[in-house]
Amino acid sequence: MSETRSTIGQRKADHLALCATDEVAFRNKTTLLEQVRFVHDALPDLHADALDTSVVILGKRLRAPIVIAAMTGGTEEAARVNRELARIAEERGYGFGLGSQRAMHVRTETAGTYEVREVAPTTLVLGNLGVVQARAMSTNEVDDLLGKIAADALCIHLNPAMELVQPGGDRDFTGGLDTIARLVRDLRVPVVVKETGCGISGSVGTRLRSVGVTHVDTSGAGGTSWVAVETKRAEAAHDAPARALGEALWDWGIPTAVSVGMLAPLGFETIVATGGIMTGLDVARAIALGASAAGIARPALKALTAGGRDGALAFFDAVERELRAAMLLSGSANVAALRKAPRVLGSELRTWLDQA
Amino acid sequence: MSETRSTIGQRKADHLALCATDEVAFRNKTTLLEQVRFVHDALPDLHADALDTSVVILGKRLRAPIVIAAMTGGTEEAARVNRELARIAEERGYGFGLGSQRAMHVRTETAGTYEVREVAPTTLVLGNLGVVQARAMSTNEVDDLLGKIAADALCIHLNPAMELVQPGGDRDFTGGLDTIARLVRDLRVPVVVKETGCGISGSVGTRLRSVGVTHVDTSGAGGTSWVAVETKRAEAAHDAPARALGEALWDWGIPTAVSVGMLAPLGFETIVATGGIMTGLDVARAIALGASAAGIARPALKALTAGGRDGALAFFDAVERELRAAMLLSGSANVAALRKAPRVLGSELRTWLDQA
Amino acid sequence: MSETRSTIGQRKADHLALCATDEVAFRNKTTLLEQVRFVHDALPDLHADALDTSVVILGKRLRAPIVIAAMTGGTEEAARVNRELARIAEERGYGFGLGSQRAMHVRTETAGTYEVREVAPTTLVLGNLGVVQARAMSTNEVDDLLGKIAADALCIHLNPAMELVQPGGDRDFTGGLDTIARLVRDLRVPVVVKETGCGISGSVGTRLRSVGVTHVDTSGAGGTSWVAVETKRAEAAHDAPARALGEALWDWGIPTAVSVGMLAPLGFETIVATGGIMTGLDVARAIALGASAAGIARPALKALTAGGRDGALAFFDAVERELRAAMLLSGSANVAALRKAPRVLGSELRTWLDQA
Amino acid sequence: MSETRSTIGQRKADHLALCATDEVAFRNKTTLLEQVRFVHDALPDLHADALDTSVVILGKRLRAPIVIAAMTGGTEEAARVNRELARIAEERGYGFGLGSQRAMHVRTETAGTYEVREVAPTTLVLGNLGVVQARAMSTNEVDDLLGKIAADALCIHLNPAMELVQPGGDRDFTGGLDTIARLVRDLRVPVVVKETGCGISGSVGTRLRSVGVTHVDTSGAGGTSWVAVETKRAEAAHDAPARALGEALWDWGIPTAVSVGMLAPLGFETIVATGGIMTGLDVARAIALGASAAGIARPALKALTAGGRDGALAFFDAVERELRAAMLLSGSANVAALRKAPRVLGSELRTWLDQA
Ligand SMILES: Cc1cc2nc3c(=O)[nH]c(=O)nc-3n(C[C@H](O)[C@H](O)[C@H](O)COP(=O)(O)O)c2cc1C
Ligand SMILES: Cc1cc2nc3c(=O)[nH]c(=O)nc-3n(C[C@H](O)[C@H](O)[C@H](O)COP(=O)(O)O)c2cc1C
Ligand SMILES: Cc1cc2nc3c(=O)[nH]c(=O)nc-3n(C[C@H](O)[C@H](O)[C@H](O)COP(=O)(O)O)c2cc1C
Ligand SMILES: Cc1cc2nc3c(=O)[nH]c(=O)nc-3n(C[C@H](O)[C@H](O)[C@H](O)COP(=O)(O)O)c2cc1C
């Protein structure tokens, strides 16, 4: 058990280090968000300073439709990252997602590395657990885990591709939907079902809706490849078969734009578009396809790692500035209007959406 | 106020200098005019010297469907450019657009830099004002500004993208349509509504038609990027945020071919296709999509800067020669016939036109 | 007049020299024949040595559906080329086209350079005249010109693009259809209407059919660009405007595959697919689109220039071998079957054919 | 006759040597399997170790839907390869195809090089004969040839493209369908009709069905080009015409994905998708298009040549691991489910399937 614990810690450390580089990006697959082209409005009846970028997500109003997506927890370094980013979320009015609380469950002494309420008292804070871990826990245990960090909601993450590549990863994915159904029904906070870089399909969305899920996070393909992360770790560990499998699955997944487009008609209350969101234009494009807000993981981490708090702030400034520009130049006074802004989709994106 | 004045003067000087290079072109977006392919007519029943390239625009007959598009005014250099190009317009029978008369309005002593009637007594001369500036002026003030230069019509330019990137640029774009409606109704000369490099959409076109506008200038994407111009200025001024926003919006806009295609069915009397027109083939393609004439800004300036009056003349010779060749080889005796010449559109252009 | 005569001679010499290189090929346009993909027949009920490649064209049976297309005449060098290629045509059972007989008309002493009957007594020999030249001649004069060389038919060539670029080229293209109508009606031999590298459209085809034309030669875009040839000559003559126009029109024209596809449904008796035919696969593809036979000009000249008679023979051997392979592997016992062989068209070719 | 014999031996040796390199791959044509993109299932209700990859083919259950496709026989080297790969097939539960038994028929003393039953007693073993050779043999002779190696079925291979290029190759392909009809009717074991790298079309499939064929192997384009193999041999033999024809036909054929898609609706019991299968993802994609199993020839040989038995085992391990991953991540518990897994086809593949 102590081995498992230190294993988790080491993996978390590996993840942060690898994700500070660009070696874990998708290779030959993009989000396809670049194929969403807004039709310029030359005559917007708008004041640039009076645009309303706010959205209400999971009962809380965000000043801008941005969620800092789940990344870390469990180590000192993780604690620092969580607190820095949560503080920015509080100041800027973004949502904030904690990394998987599995470490916190296994080693309760790491709970403090997840505590961000001190710096983010009013922020929308999202807890996080893998569906396989959640399956093994009682609802009370989960409630407890969330209570300790005063989370507003729980992200249940799905990551079968990554697990398959990870040496010693989970192999039993049965009962996932039942677990989600139970938590949606019994948990005191709302549940967001979230992928981690391979996207949620229309078919999975339909199954989720059938058990009452109303919040999803696409975490689609085109940004960080979690398969890539585990492939890098397999490479370092000289595990040739895992590495080979990882190379083959590196680009597996549904592009983020496609995942948003697939989920949009299914009646979800919240669709967070995560996966490869790098700019404010990406945020705008995801919203135009039907997202409620956009989630950003690795680009935020990179900005923080490279430039500290100021670097992260500058990154988010740029994202917001671009988002507002896209709103103004598409004639959208607020996020609801942006969702209906005229746009032209490229043929690759249409091919996906027509068939899927 | 004197600062504002010298600021305008400096900006104008910067613009001319930057636009003599190709660093301010769109990067990854073209006009899509190259996707208009004429179907060769091997058996035209035509004499190459009897083709009629003339068009009537805004009540005046142009010998060729070419407008030298709005560029400058307000400085000595600007005066020289205006006079050289206006003289060519007179000799060749083109239309001629003056640059924004804002400078002339703010510093009346610069009025002379806009006066081209001496060299262009019969030319179709177009005045120019930004919609935001026009909003702040009475109709009489505008009439006065136009009267001083004996303009045949007023171009009201729209440029929200550029303003957003420009440090200290306009941020209040409200009331644009009302301003245009007022001027269309009350001004003594006709009004042309003109973009400056991002294009006019079908939706904007419809709004313009609804307040009585009958003349438009697409000034679409694919040629000069005004966002690029301001980005270069931001770079020189070490304004990192403005520069970053500019980089993100560099290619924003509706390709010229798309803008023409969108506006063609809306019943405008005049559609000037400006934005990235570089050759006589481009002129012909724009007309085949529904334009009345084509506007050329920076390529004319570049020819003048690089080769003086002779260089500019040679440039226009080449444009006309190509236009006539395209007419002959598509079996078009005149511009009206060219508008209906058989042609094949590439798939990217069709994708835009089908969806927009 | 003697100047005109030596001018023609010089031009013919220039043409042969330039066409021995690849500098006069289209640059960014292909024949689109490469987008015709046969569907392999793994089980052809055929003997490779029993395939029938013969076709009857203009009343004569060719052993293979190949015409050596019009190239030259008027100089000693031209005479040599004509005789070498005509001898091969006779031996191999191909059709053979003479170059424009304008030189022979202007300088009757050059008639001998067109005489190929000595070496090609039974070959299908095609005379050649530009439509503009033919317009100025009486039907008797034309008959006479053809009689001297014992031609089986007359190719009337159309080449407005080339003429526009050629300094001193024709500019009056009126009356072309009338001229053709007269010759079709009154001439003792059949008339083939032929382009020279820009292709014949469906619309031109319809006009030709309306005056009784039943034989055409596409000579479409993608092979030799005659505009390019004249552009190279303008370059050598330091004629900058002609050169610039030539650069702009270099790739003008209808790809050969498109021209064949456009003409196929119009009820012509003969469609010779010329323009960029380089291989036996190209011959097969053109036939599958509806051609009766394929014409080859410059590739034959190049083979002869580079390798003499043996080189030319080897070239045609390869073409025939490939054609027979394509027939066998598409399950086609003869040319009529090949015309119906299953095939898949690429999207660029379909785009052209759908719209045109 | 002894010459013919040693010729066959030499050819077999050449084949193995050339196929150990990548110089005999298709150049500008792929299998198009890469255009089959599975739609990720983030929530598969599956255990990775409980996936059922087995299929029943030709009456025998394979543990995984993999057939080691026909390659060799007739030489000592061939015997070694056959035994090594057959042993792996037995251990792993794959099908195993022997190379053409022509050598064994011509030189009965080479029969031993085809005997694999000692190492593969329960394996699905496929005999192999070219349709042209089979035509010349009585059904009894064929039965005899199969009996000697205790084959479960006979692959009749079709390879007209290769024969055309091969100096001295077959030229008479008549009577193929009759030969197949006879063997299907009279032979004691089932017949699989198999191409060798150019694919089987829908039209050939229909003809095969009409004479009672129920098993096919696509052996489509995009993997090993047998034309390429013979072109390399022609090159070595300084046979310029054969080499030129080979270069022209190098990429001839129907991409494997297209062949599978064409055959899927025709009611075959077995469709083995061979030709360019390199990975487990390829196996999965072929099955999703309708294949029963996938055949692998040269990649298996290469793995064996480069890494011996261990190399081959590692190669197949990787293939199986990827196949299982694709099954799990597309939510497919077994091969039947995989055949119906949601997927998106790229436009090139759709173009082929729509037209063919
Ligand atoms: C360092 C790092 C750690 C992550 N850890 C988690 C996690 O614990 N739980 C989770 O749901 N997603 C996790 N993710 C996935 C992200 O939330 C996100 O879905 C994915 O990275 C795609 O977004 P991106 O392209 O913006 O990075 C992690 C991502 C990164 C970069
Ligand atoms: C140096 C320069 C100055 C310009 N100034 C104005 C202006 O004052 N008013 C205006 O309506 N457009 C102005 N424009 C925009 C042009 O009229 C035109 O819409 C745009 O440059 C696209 O055309 P092009 O690609 O041919 O340059 C200017 C363009 C240039 C190059
Ligand atoms: C050297 C040369 C001379 C030619 N002269 C004539 C001519 O006199 N009359 C004519 O109809 N076409 C002429 N052509 C055009 C060819 O007949 C043919 O239409 C064109 O070259 C396209 O075929 P290719 O791509 O096989 O060269 C000539 C072509 C070449 C290469
Ligand atoms: C070395 C070698 C020898 C082959 N010999 C035969 C053969 O005798 N009979 C046959 O039907 N196919 C033969 N093939 C063709 C293969 O069975 C297969 O159809 C083709 O190579 C395409 O599969 P691949 O891309 O996996 O190599 C041979 C292939 C190779 C590489």
From TrEMBL, chains A, B, C, D:
A Gene Ontology BP annotation from the UniProt entry: isoprenoid biosynthetic process
E.C. number:
5.3.3.2
Query: rRNA-binding among the record's keywords?
Result: no
Where, in this chain's numbering, is Mg(2+) bound? Answer: 163
Q: Write out the residues that bind substrate.
A: 11-12, 100-102
Record note on quaternary structure = Homooctamer. Dimer of tetramers.
Q: Which gene encodes it?
A: fni
Family annotation (InterPro entries): Aldolase_TIM, FMN-dep_DH, IPdP_isomerase
Q: Which UniProt keywords apply?
A: Cytoplasm, Flavoprotein, FMN, Isomerase, Isoprene biosynthesis, Magnesium, Metal-binding, NADP
Check the record and name the CDD domains matching this protein. Answer: IDI-2_FMN
| Places the protein is found | Cytoplasm
Give the domain of life.
Bacteria
* The protein's required cofactors: FMN; NADPH; Mg(2+)
Q: Tell me, what does this protein do in biology?
A: Involved in the biosynthesis of isoprenoids. Catalyzes the 1,3-allylic rearrangement of the homoallylic substrate isopentenyl (IPP) to its allylic isomer, dimethylallyl diphosphate (DMAPP).
Q: Name one Pfam family in it.
A: FMN_dh
Could you tell me what reaction this enzyme catalyses? isopentenyl diphosphate = dimethylallyl diphosphate
Please identify the protein, giving its name as recorded.
Isopentenyl-diphosphate delta-isomerase
Which molecular-function annotation in GO is an example for this chain? Answer: isopentenyl-diphosphate delta-isomerase activity
Q: What SUPFAM superfamilies would the database entry show? A: FMN-linked oxidoreductases (SSF51395)
Similarity comment: family membership: Belongs to the IPP isomerase type 2 family.
Positions annotated to bind FMN:
70-72, 100, 128, 194, 219, 224, 297-298
What is any one of the record's Gene Ontology cellular component terms?
cytoplasm
Domain spans labelled FMN-dependent dehydrogenase: 7-105, 178-340
